[in-house]
Design brief:
- Chains A, B: One of its GO terms (biological process) is negative regulation of DNA-templated transcription.
- Chains A, B: One of its GO terms (molecular function) is DNA-binding transcription factor activity.
- The structure is a homodimer.
- By secondary structure, chain A is an all-alpha fold.
- The first copy, chain A, folds into two domains: 64 residues, Arc Repressor Mutant, subunit A (Orthogonal Bundle); 147 residues, Tetracycline Repressor, domain 2 (Orthogonal Bundle), CATH 1.10.357.10.
- In chain A, 61% of the residues lie in helices and 0% in strands.
- In chain A, helix 4 runs parallel beside helix 7.
- The radius of gyration of chain A is 23 Å and the shape is flat.
- At the A-B interface, helix 4, helix 6, helix 7, helix 8 and helix 9 of A face helix 4, helix 6, helix 7, helix 8 and helix 9 of B.
- The structure holds a DNA duplex.
DNA sequence: ACCTGAACACCGTTCAAGT
DNA sequence: ACCTGAACACCGTTCAAGT
């Protein structure tokens, strides 16, 4: 079986393309852009091969010349999103501020295309833009002074936290309007009305819950992760223990799941 | 429009049910259990009204007497999963150990039903089991000494991080076998082979990446979050500032996204 | 070489008719 | 009261035929 990443025909071999009935000349880039536009304008349910063909002015089956299947198209969309998110980012040299900015960019980039993000945030594309992002983030951590094993461990937690919250919050944003409104109402209509004798902790904090649960918890979780990373770095660089050697023994030790 | 949570007919009004053609007596519970079994045995694509009807021995359209639509069924599945995850959990009195255990349970519970988790982890059900979970976790944090506003903020970050990682890791687990294998191979086949001159940070850490990216980063992220929470608690209780009053000013301050 | 159109095997949901 | 079966408006994907 061939890899999911290859197109059916390598781009270079597709030189002179016959325009479709409506005069459009198809290309992978045009299809990805159109897919992103469809997702943005009409939601996740709108990304069907048939509607994509219609939007492009081509027969749906023509798309199978460019992408093996819908999953292959989705990975291309995912990589394009990563590229857009990091296109104009530049490091400042302050590792903590840089990671904070990167995390918030990934998160808000996902919310700008929630339907695409919810379908693709958890995928490893192995394509150009993703590789560039991995290289950049590892560079920030190694530049800060984290030894390699530690840099990778924190890289993994940082990236997966960003992607996981991006997908979570994108999923809420991308919910059909009826379900979205129903969920927003649950905190006011259900939680805020629970009696104190059966649910003392919810009743005592209801006011805070109604206020806080509307916003994303990602900025809080991100700052907690960065705070823990900074504490760890201080321990490594200030504690006199040789950096990068020996097992990690305290605080943020790896744990069996 | 009626709420997403109501069934078409209240359970009490459905007394004597006619068995289906194949002799099965339908019920909401039976349908939810069958849906979970279908998801587990045949993956997320198997949860269709038609296949569920087939598995139950009933006409697909009969299910619409019990659930408004597939989303309504999904929320019932989500709440059932929460219930199973916390069914036999008991607090030890050590807030940090208790939260760690709860987080790991949510995560591994999701991986036990990845197809269900990926569809439902980001939903607010407002149903019985979810309410019980919120009450329990808030109780642990308030019992630890966090003032109400802080307890809610940390509750939100803790729960959303657990659910977000659960969904992320469940999504990888639930991927169709071909895509799953392709992703696993990307770290070895693509990242581990990048040259040091173009990608120095990836090349320097390739060995760690191949090893680390196979596992979930959740235990690391969870320990980092709990470490930051512990530091914050020490600050509040040891720092002499009145608990629960005044704005939070340092370290883990809330941030605009 | 590339696009088209028909075909196949599916979906969720509604509603009149049956029991 | 509850289940059934037909109907409607969709899906993704394949492949022989057209240009």
């Amino acid at each position: 079986m061939t890899s999911t990443n290859d197109r059916v025909v390598p781009p270079a071999a597709r030189r002179r393309r016959r325009p479709t009935k409506t005069g459009v000349v198809l290309s992978g880039e045009l299809i990805v852009e159109t897919a992103l536009r469809l997702l943005k304008e009409h939601g996740a349910d709108a990304l069907t091969v048939r509607r994509l063909g219609l939007a492009l002015g081509a027969d749906p089956s023509a798309l199978y010349r460019y992408f093996r299947d819908t999953d292959d198209l989705l990975l291309a969309v995912a990589d394009e999103l990563i590229g857009r998110t990091l296109r104009d980012w530049r490091p400042t040299g302050d590792w903590r501020a840089d990671l904070r900015d990167l995390g918030l960019r990934v998160h808000s980039g996902s919310l700008a295309h929630p339907q695409a993000a919810v379908l693709s945030s958890y995928r490893v594309t192995g394509r150009a833009h993703e590789i560039q992002a991995v290289e950049t983030i590892l560079g920030v951590l190694r530049g800060a002074g984290f030894p390699d094993a530690e840099a990778v461990r924190i890289y993994h937690a940082f990236v997966d936290q960003a992607l996981a919250f991006a997908a979570l919050d994108a999923a809420s944003t991308a919910l059909p309007p009826a379900a979205r409104e129903a969920e927003a109402g649950v905190w006011r209509a259900t939680y805020a009305r629970l009696p104190a004798d059966s649910h003392p902790n919810i009743a005592a904090t209801a006011r805070h819950l109604v206020h806080d649960m509307r916003r994303s918890a990602y900025p809080t979780a991100l700052d907690m992760l960065l705070g823990a990373a900074a504490a760890r770095l201080a321990e490594i660089t200030g504690g006199g223990r040789a950096a990068g050697t020996g097992p990690v023994r305290d605080g943020m030790r790896p744990a069996a799941d």
